[in-house]
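job 3f2a | input accepted
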Amino acid sequence: MKKILFPTDFSEAATNAFVHALEFAKVVKAELVLLHTFEIPVYDSQFFPENYASIYSSIELAKFEMFKDEIPKLRAIATERKLDDIVIKHRLMDGDLIFNLKNAIEEDKIDFVIMGTSGVSDWTKFFTGSNTSSVISEVKVPILCVPANAKYKKIKIIGFTTRYREKDKAELRKVIEIAKKTNAKVKSLYVRTSNTDVSDATIKEWEKEFAGENVEFLVLPSDEVKETILDFILYKDVDVLTTITHKRSFFESIFESSFSKKIAKEVSVPVLVMHET
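job 3f2a | predicted structure (277 res):
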């Protein structure tokens, strides 16, 4: 892993995620590319015939000045955490966030994205924020999404949810590689419902195939899938929860139940979103 893209709006949520990005960059020996995007509002030139160009210039200048003022604050965080040896580069781009993200990923050959959520303090709106869900849908490299109140701690256990589909193996191997770099253990969860179609033979085959890796396979019988995943996060000390993009619509609904709202603030762990290959 060579380059990590960190999109930021310089909000409190983004600054919190920056700490995660710094620490992760240190572990995997990568450089950080900070991206700040802004959209210039569209004005009708017939109403501003004389100062039409100056309006745009002043907006761009203001954004540049803000960008210039905020960067030293982030570098101060790096210095405070004794991580100022990490290479940090910057991109200030006007236009659509998703368009600029995809361009930055392609042009800078980005391997990984780390971003904060849109300032929500729990997971009830985590996957439904327009920016976060759009990024998850459109960007094809792994994304670590950090809730606003998820304070950084060393990653010791990475949770991985699976339905034992053959294509999930490739993503599990990627997670295992990340776990090796962070010296973490992977705990793979399958919730076996009463109408399951996964055989014991399939589960045994996975256990045999990954026998040499630091992976624990957990099969929990329950028809309450959402609550079981939340229990898994809470009681198995999961530091990062991995999901695959085909499950995003499912995860959007996880945090809507009254049960989940009660404990939402207790499960503020980053979510690592993998993309099917």
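job 3f2a | Residues 151 and 249 are 26 Å apart (CA to CA).
job 3f2a | closed
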